[in-house]
Amino acid sequence: MHKRRRLGVLLSGGPAPGGHNVIATLFDLCEGYIDLYGVKRGAEGLIEGDMTLLQKDVVNRFRATGGFDLLGTRRRKIVDADIAKISEVIKKFSLDGLIFIGGDDTATNAYKLSKEVDARIIHVPKTIDFDLAVPSFGFDTACSLMSRCIQNLKRDARSTGKYLHVIKLMGRDTSHITLECALRSRPNFAIITEELIAKKRTLDQVVDEMVTFLAARSKSYGVVLIPEGISLALKELAEDTELDSHGNVDLSGMESHVKLMQHVQKLGEQRGVKIPPVRFANLGYESRCEDPTQYDLEYTKKLGIRAFQAFLENKTGVMVSDDGAHSIENYMIDDPKRGRVVAKVSVDLNKEKFKEWARIRQELIHED
């Protein structure tokens, strides 16, 4: 009689819609001949050996739901001192493999661990930021919800006729969310960090452009989108924040959009351009645990299947996508500040999505 195989799965980093569906898919595929263990609290729980054998009734309660509350999640970098502890945990639970569901930092953890342990280590790409070389789940759902919120604020602006809604959008270093939401919700103005960097725009130039936009719009209301990573292009808007264990800056905690509008209001006053009353909003956290869209449900099912196939094929150190499993090594770079890590992928200004935004943004200045 063959020994029953055991597979572990963990969620890591910020939540993204669809994570539970990856786990449910894995459970369905494992049911009957492979034990699926859920690791609680991401890498933190893995190091501590905090895991439980997943049961059908529990998994079914979370199937197709948002959030990561089935297992919980944490941000924790796996360092050399953790390897021995994790190896002991793998041995204790007799795990044949571990599936990491997370973003670029989680992929870096998975790659590091794959070089050190006997178990097969597989990564499933998760992040609403959409900043991986392999398409990640959660982006469609997050952008759908955020776009609806932006459209509601557009209607609020039209209804009251007196507010400029300035909305900061999640996305970390990249502007994929801002660009996608701009195309879906058609704001009057939006900033793409990658464009500022490519054109070497200064704070004064951006402020001038925004005041010029408001003068041209000549209305007492409107909607502006600003990516949370804008301070990476305009250093004057940055704030001193603590770094997480992976060396990431807390961009979500910065008030970069508020600082930018203070400069806009000052220059507007100097030029005699009336700036409407500003109302600030932050979008991101409310979207991370939304129930997944049909697209994300279908995509996470594919990813769960691909991860399971990679496990059966004895692959390790791989990231899965809808077309198979690829070595994480393909996506690694040497970062001067963070070391050997999985690269973040920025908005490509030469691709059709940004070109579409460039084509329509002028007409949106005057749109209600």
Task: Report a brief summary of the structure.
The chain has about 375 residues and is of the alpha/beta class. It has helices at about 20-30, 40-50, 55-60, 80-95, 105-115, 140-160, 175-185, 195-200, 205-215, 255-270, 295-310, 350-365, and strands spanning about 5-10, 35-40, 50-55, 95-100, 120-125, 165-170, 190, 220-225, 280-285, 320, 325, 330-335, 340. About 50% of the residues are buried.
How would you describe this structure to a colleague?
The protein is α/β, with parallel strands linked by helices. The chain has 2 domains: 177 residues, Rossmann fold, CATH 3.40.50; 165 residues, Rossmann fold. Helices cover 41% and strands 17% of the residues. The protein is built from 12 helices and 13 strands. The strands form 3 sheets. Strands 3-2-1-4-5-10-11 form a 7-stranded mixed β-sheet, with helices on both faces. Helix 1 runs antiparallel to helix 3. The longest helix is centred in the middle third of the chain and has 22 residues. The radius of gyration is 22 Å and the shape is elongated. The N and C termini lie far apart (70 Å).
Descriptors for this entry?
17% strand, 4-stranded parallel β-sheet, Rossmann fold, single chain, 12 helices, 13 strands, 368 residues, 7-stranded mixed β-sheet, alpha/beta
